[in-house]
């Protein structure tokens, strides 16, 4: 049976996905102040894409979040994480020594030091986890059943 025969599920999904995405952003950007962070936000974002794919079909999900984009986001997330560590080393500290990220450029606007380091690392983790979990869904959902 196709999901086209269940209009209520389709409508409810369209109503829920924006709130799921909003919650994922909340978890991502408040992870350094309380529970949550990149991993949890990444899983929540991937869950929204998975829900979309389950209800509207795998091809529809791949149009929204193409596999090529997901592959690039996997690499970008790791690059953000590792790049933060390399930047701290270039500034004279150890790998991910956030204290060396302290700056005086727009101190009221841009985070500095520990806050900036945690934000960047959590951002990298969130991007990577979203992309990896989405690609895992694509892989399993796209399998051909042999009977």
How would you describe what is shown here?
- The chain is an all-alpha fold.
- The chain has one domain (3-141).
- It contains 5 helices and no strands.
- α2 packs across α3 (58-64).
- It starts with 6 loop residues before the first helix and ends in a 6-residue tail after the last helix.
- The mean pLDDT is 89.
Layout: helices, strands, pairs:
Elements: H1 7-29, H2 38-56, H3 58-64, H4 67-90, H5 114-141
Helix pairs in contact: 1-2, 2-3, 2-5, 4-5
Beta-strand portion reads under 5%
Low-confidence stretches: none
Number of strands: 0
Count up the helices: 5
| Overall radius of gyration | 19 Å
Tell the overall outline.
elongated
Q: N-to-C terminal Cα separation, in Å?
A: 19 Å
**What is the helical fraction, as a range of percent?**
55-70%
Mean of residue pLDDT values:
89
- Helix and strand sequence: HHHHH
**Based on helices, strands and strand pairing, what is the structural class?**
mainly alpha
**What is the number of domains?**
1
Largest sheet at a glance? Answer: none
Write a short abstract of this structure.
This protein is mainly α.
Structural descriptors:
single chain, 69% helix
